[in-house]
């Protein structure tokens, strides 16, 4: 099946009872080289997986209990820890883990280590960073851009869901110098609701989201600077929208270019040739093509009258936008086949 | 209630069994100055309204039957005919109606009379127009732009749903000369599924649309030229998307401008002051705010770093994007209060 | 239009910021004989309607502010108060209102006055009732069963949404003695999510409900005894389910009977002849036929092999199951045409 | 991973472009002991998998083409053929396959071989059966009831989706003689839309299903007799409903019994002990717990007042209700581990 069965990586998940944690558990339940050994959840402390997630009854870890986070215990039980805490809550946990052991590896789902410098983080997130010294070790976990660094890293900052969809959509053109930066780059993204996480809220109750479509953070969203920094652009105009569906991000990106449709198509195919998880398509992708998977599907075309390139990319925000990308990073960090446990296809409908 | 009760306009609907027809029936059932007297449907010919639309049992016209279209009978029974046929099928019907009587008024839902000239129509739609002579009479039925012409017109071309949302979002800035046309104007629109009409189809079956978000017509959509023409722009980049919901269009529009957020907000408020159906908002609108209504809600802001104005507009594609806008046009054409029968608020949830 | 314009009833809503309150505001905005004069909301105290409900900008009461509940002020400003508080929270408010004035009328949305006796209430809801003396005044607000009592009442207990759908589905057969009570009566109901109210919650967030269908309260739900009491049955087996949609209840009810399909159909048509808001149908109703309306649509048939009658009824849980039924009750209590403001048809799609 | 890698079964799918075919492809793409060698589709004949199902780009069979059905070619290329045709269309194909080779095994998704006798089939489906002689070979493919017969069979009739959910919900009680058959057995089932298949249709377009809940076939559905026959009951009252979601069936079943809740729970746990794919739960299951999987989750309780047992069961109609159950049958027929390729857990959200 998926990867050869071999020595198993011992995996812990901190903050395991949210959507990204549950998605990790689903993926790890069929990973040939991983064993889940440690789970934390403040809210469900002492409960077993099968009590909180009855859909995981019969899984290998159905009787594992959620603990309160304890860094010493974590590093004793784990080769790698996925840290699924919100930004600001994450850096102390990451720091504690890395101080508790010089061997444990950490894949952080928050924004806390995604920027190149703590200064940018502090300016964008408006808080002081309490683990500034770790920035020099952190690698941005987008394998299609930073594969070699990820392989050697102990601390991977798993990218944001929107940035994953936007960066993969724009990088080939940026890298090739094909973006005319005298004109703004527009990233218009649309996300399913699971991107908002699992929390008590009126805003995201069914009735408020169903049969509705909205833009939000129209006056500024923190993923804008993350996208711009990784692309080396001065700025991008980024607008997120909320789609009444559970999973998926579709990004429509616009930039001025001299290249023709054919040249763009060629450029993208070339750049992603050999990338198993990026599928450059000949027709616009749909989010249901990638739901539940680690794929990023991309279509690129040219609007002749305006001179704009139009790129459409689709990912699963919990997949390539979070948990399966984290597993891809784990595979790289442990020398496993990059696709191990990830050759899964969408439910489609 | 809604408008004063007075002499009643006799209304016919050609192609009454689709979504726009059903929405007209819903609206006309509570209109104080309209009586439905004539309905056609090829598919349901001979059937009564209550058989085909059981949700309209108890309505004033529940026992009215669907006829096959007959222009003589139509003009005999009606003061105004709403023509809800697809483009290309519409112009022969419109022509027949207008030839059968010099008094009947026609509100056409198709694209057949929306352009300023038949040449543009023929180029965009790729067919020869069989009623070229009617172009000089036709008025584009967007009351916020063409109110006085509509009042005097016998033939109103009801705007497309996407163009309504885009034009209202951009017009104040265009009119004021605030759009820097050295940069492309981007219109990124997202529509509910009823925009596709009521027809046999695999593409729009529930399972193919639900839990999916997609872009379509990425290489060109006919509403692009309609938007550009009405705004007097050389071109706009227009990308439509399909949202898994029944009703609603949200448009996010981008253009380069010198104006600040405050100036833009002021400009829009001023332009639409006195327009009952345009609500310039201080927070981004959501489609559920306008579903089932004739409102267009608008929010405008400025992205300082890119220099782009960002405008978000929300309409109901079957409301302001089709049937209720048609009723607004009817009200104007017959000297009724413009809001008659239309002071309805969204179900919201 | 809907009812003749005449003297206006002054209306207050206590707990106006939830879903039933918002639905009342939508309905009252087009009611020819009602003026909203008083609104309370603890959460949004001091805010105007247009700030909290931007979909109601341009409504007659857009600038009315939400107050903290004050019974003296309420009775001063109102002829009738709709009390939209949860059970247990409602009876003190109702009591305070009725003590503050001997003239004000109250329509209570909670369960607090629905049972025939406080003893049943206390047993089913497990709390002591602090306004036991009001039971003798309270009338169960199902006009099709208790019209005359409602007309004379000062305190109407608006029925539960499930009970409305179940009682209307079963009453004609029960009343005619056609139910074989040696066999259980089964009420299998399915509700949209708005029935759960507007509150912070993980259980009802979009992702937890969407693409899911569940039964709940399978071991007992408080609407079971309410249904049984009003039908005069010893018990009914009631199972509620949650449907991933905003509005609507569909109830499928089963009872053993000697009657044939034709006899059942005849019985139901006869019983509801003259009831504007009950439509006995010749094909099974769907919730979209009644969404946003005060209709209850019913279909009855017979399963020959099992000897069971099968009744399917559809209502909007926020309409006939709550707010529009409350308006129907108000109309009766104030001598207005029963249909005033309620001749609205479903958006359908 | 899932089952040991070993000699691979060569698999064909007839009618591979519908929903059950696509689900088989998804499942077989990760099955350790199966290779897809043959696909047919009249509609997409000559096209490759990756053209029709872009979500399967990168799968092992992405370049396999859809053929027109040819029984000789099928048996040459396949050890087993999944026949995903509608009833009536299926029996000729099954017959042709079994005549073309005495070794090929067939798993039929239609109703054509589900009944014990062709007489019942002909009476329920109202057509003459053209392959009556195959009935003696056909086994009903519900492993939890007919495991040993399936292992020895060449022709398995894969059960209907509703019957799977109903039979598993009722069988333990029936088998134990705990159902009081003097009272009707009621099966009230609710299904996602994919159960209707992939076809051109107005009835199942998004707008007609979304925000709607309906009962259908209220006067009789063919799955009723299938359920009754397999349970050995004279009749069951079966009512299907349509839920606005893609996947999942929830069945609520009612029968009169002397047993207590505890006895029922014990009976069910005992009966399904050792069944990997049936999870007897201590709280009511939800369809999202089983979506995309082969699990059937069951909860049983007792309504004391009415004396009814209430059983709630949840399956994925395309999973345990169709394609994954077919794979389970294949595993049994070829001596593979029964869970091979099927230890997958729900996406959950």
TrEMBL record, chains A, B, C, D:
Catalytic activity: N-acetyl-L-glutamate 5-semialdehyde + phosphate + NADP(+) = N-acetyl-L-glutamyl 5-phosphate + NADPH + H(+)
Top-level taxon in the UniProt lineage: Bacteria
Biological process, per Gene Ontology: L-arginine biosynthetic process
Main location: cytoplasm
Subcellular location(s) of the protein: Cytoplasm
Catalytic residue list: 161
InterPro entries: AGPR (IPR050085), AGPR_AS (IPR023013), AGPR_dimerisation_dom (IPR058924), AGPR_type-1 (IPR000706), NAD(P)-bd_dom_sf (IPR036291), Semialdehyde_DH_NAD-bd (IPR000534)
EC number: 1.2.1.38
Cell cycle recorded as keyword: no
Gene Ontology MF: a single term: NADP+ binding
Ranges where the Semialdehyde dehydrogenase NAD-binding domain occurs: 10-153
Keywords: Amino-acid biosynthesis, Arginine biosynthesis, Cytoplasm, NADP, Oxidoreductase
One cellular component term from this protein's GO annotations in UniProt: cytoplasm
Pathway where this protein functions: Amino-acid biosynthesis; L-arginine biosynthesis; N(2)-acetyl-L-ornithine from L-glutamate: step 3/4
PROSITE patterns: ARGC (PS01224)
Pfam families according to UniProt: Semialdhyde_dh, Semialdhyde_dhC_1
Role played: Catalyzes the NADPH-dependent reduction of N-acetyl-5-glutamyl phosphate to yield N-acetyl-L-glutamate 5-semialdehyde.
Family: Belongs to the NAGSA dehydrogenase family. Type 1 subfamily.
Protein name: N-acetyl-gamma-glutamyl-phosphate reductase
High-level lineage: Bacteria, Pseudomonadati, Aquificota, Aquificia, Desulfurobacteriales
